[in-house]
Structure formats: structure tokens, C-alpha cells
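Appendix B. Raw example, untouched.
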Amino acid sequence: MRITVKAFATFREVMDMKVELEFPEGATVKTLLSELTARYNGLDVLLFAGPGMLRNFVNILKNGRNIHFITGLDTSLDDGDMIALFPPAAGG
């Protein structure tokens, strides 16, 4: 299955703005992030506070819906999904 990933803000400093990847059936967001962090040096530091722990306020959307409200990193991927990566926002 083909998944499209779009990176925003500081994530664009370490990875491509848009990436298309192929995964077998049964892949999850965790599988996707593992592939991306292996491919893009420095991405893991921006995404994770520790092993398997996303940094506070990192938002990952699957087709516009935050994975936090689905099943987190265990959210399943489907052919044609659009995954958006948003770093923490600062300011006020």
C-alpha cells in the first residue's frame, strides 16, 4: 500500500516536504515512523522524547484526524492514507 507523508515547519529541516512510501498490509504509524527515522538523520530527536514516546505536542494526523484520538502509534495505515507531521508550536 502507498502512504503519503507531509512534513511541516521544523520537520522540513530534516526531511522532504512530501514523501511517498510503500508498506505491506498491517503497517501502523509506528512502522511508518520507524522507516522515516531510519531514512532521515535527526528526525528521531524531533519526534521522540524517549523510546516509543512522542514529544509533547507533536501532532500526527491520519487523513486529517489526530492519531491521539484513534489508537496512537498503533493506528493502522490504509492504502492512500495521507499522514501529516506537525512539530510543537510555540508563541502566543
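End of appendix B.
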